[in-house]
Amino acid sequence: MALKALIGELHRRSLWQVVVGYLVFVWLLFETFEVLSTTVGLPDWVEPTAAVILVLLLPALIATASIQRGPRASWPRLDLHPEGGAPSPEGAPRDPGGTGREAPMGSAPASGPTAEVAAPAGATTKKRRPWTVDRLFTWRNTIMGGASAFVILAVITAIYMILRTAGIGPAATLVAAGTLDDRERLIVADFASPPELAELATAITEGMRLDLAQSPTVRIHSPRAVSAALTRMELEPDAALTADLAREVAVREEVRVVVAGEIGEVGSGYVIQASVLDADDGAVLVSQRVSARNADRVVEAVDELAKKVRERIGEPLGSIGRSAPLERVTTANLDALRLYSSAIRAIDIEGANDRGQLLLEEALELDPDFAMAWRKLGIVLNNRGEERARVYEALEQAYSHRDRLSARERYLATAAYHANATGDTDLAVEAYQTLLDLEPTEGTALNNLGVLHLEMRDEAGAIPLLIRALEVDSTAAIPFMNLIWAYGNQGAFDEAVEHIEAHPWLIDDPTAREHEVQLWASAGEYEEARRRLVALRESETASPYWRTRTSEELAALAAIQGRLEEAETHYRDALASNVERGLRAAAIVEGARLANMFLHVTDDPPGALTTIDFVLREHPLEDLDALDRPYLALAEVFAGAGRADRAQSLIDRFVETVPPEIHSAEQRSDLDRVRGAIALARGDARAAIEATRASDRFVCLLCALPQLGEAYERAGMRDSAIAIYARYVETPFLFRARDTDPWHLGPTIERLAQLYEAEGETAKAADYYARLARLWAGADDRLQPRVDRARERTQALLAGRP
Question: For a Cys-Cys bond, which of 87, 213, 456, 469 suits 447, CB 3.0-4.6 Å?
Fold first, then answer.
């Protein structure tokens, strides 16, 4: 009945109405294909085949609409009667007698030349209706013909999908056939090429890694892991990974398959081939080939090739359909892709962050919309803690172009933007968790979510995530060093050392070695920390970044032990190094660190102000980008020196020039702490307590405590002050030797001893006096009177003397 109704409706419509309706049907059909491709998945030949059917159906549709709407009398019969004879034109009278009716039963037949011959008795006659054009091009025939074609296509597709899933015949995938396991690891070898195509081959190799990394069915054995294996094989860590060498690495790393390929020139175009090889015997499990008409089509061709490989490996077709094309995930600019590939190798394998940063910047000059390059640049800059304006720009650019990224990179870019640009930790956690729901073994998300837990002071929640990240890739240095951070914050020194000893191949990373330095320093082993830091500095002499970093950390260790002249020298070295690198904001921060040493260790506010004034004359804030200006670090120094109005003007300018919606979580904490310092400078201890307590919520476990203890003292709440000072001295925190102890550890120990003595707790007072004497045993002469006083009080209290 529905078909009859449809046919009736079509008879009433004009040709153009039918064509428009057909085009609407075609659009709906391909929208359905799009939905199916991104859900259940369809083979890549289904849509082209359907398009061919639709193109062939269109002329039949137009002919049918024209014929069925025209006067039937105008169309001649197609006489297919076997008896022969000339056909009568359609429209000639069928009733020779002109009655239009059959003769009544039993009546005599008409006479004359037109009379019909009576049939023999008992015989029946059956007229054959002549074939006509309007009988051939009917709506029923056209609809049933098109429907039959699509039914055949659906049946063939269903058979293909069944055979593919069952692992039967040529449609079988490697996973369905049992050749590979789900989530199988594989190594991507460097694509082979003639010498003149070497750079292009490098870009294609990285492009293949990027696209295969989107697959939920396989895992890419990390380039860092391959580099570590090459080192164990006594080869250069960046040696060319030929197919044969990749197979050898795979066997050593217990990886079963290798993806290898090659590129060659054909006229003005290229042919690119990729094969999945058995690592043991080199047998070709899958081989696919694509061509590119010219260099501009290479990225698109690599995307097509990677999808073919993923399909033959056994990835669900719907997953492939959901993956963003490589051209959108990376860049359509081949030169930018080459630079990006080199940058990834420099950063992730060679640890050459300076060179990697330059390569990323060059790639972005060629393609300003290169989302992945923006994201990587933002992460590199953020990890260094430099140039906040550039960090924000890079992460915001990656976030704004997130629609060009794969699902994995989109969630990573979203999380990085909120964690490091807007300070919205909840949205960052949500993005990482969503990605882990999709890919539970996504190592970057596991690590970064673990870091967010650390920043929220949840070491217990961070450690399982970081362990999982390291299990996903045992050569990943970042979760390795973040586990050192987590253990250090728990005061689990022995567990941290065991963790380091269990992963000796990772401690060569310079940042991991820096974490090891901080671990020893947080345990009070300053000489051992210094020895390791000097070794790190000597091994990284070629890096301006590490020259600066080690200078400020050597300054911090010296300041903790009271060697203030040595500390000042190192701080000034770090300041000058930052100026040489063009990082004037970082240079001002080094000046603030030096000023804090004068302010808190030697109680010399004029010396602190002189230092800051000199630095600001050399590097005016107005010359810096608003996001780079260290308003809060400067305001804290001015407040500590009693210049409350100057400090207030700085935080007012910070609030005016840096939109609140892009304040990082760390900046929000710092802002509250500076407001507390200003309240202290103005004599409002209660307001200082409230603001400082509000600041004690992010990352740094100790930064607020010395100021909070002082505020309690000023408010006459001595017991609370003692408790806070003791909490500062005794709380484990991996980065205390870098972030707070250079200015506060000695003075806080000294003040605790004095307060305990005033309270009559002689044993505790003696213990803290003795600790100060040990800490500053080698201090500068200007601190020695305080050391002598500490020793005297220790002996007197232990002897029971006043």
Answer: 469
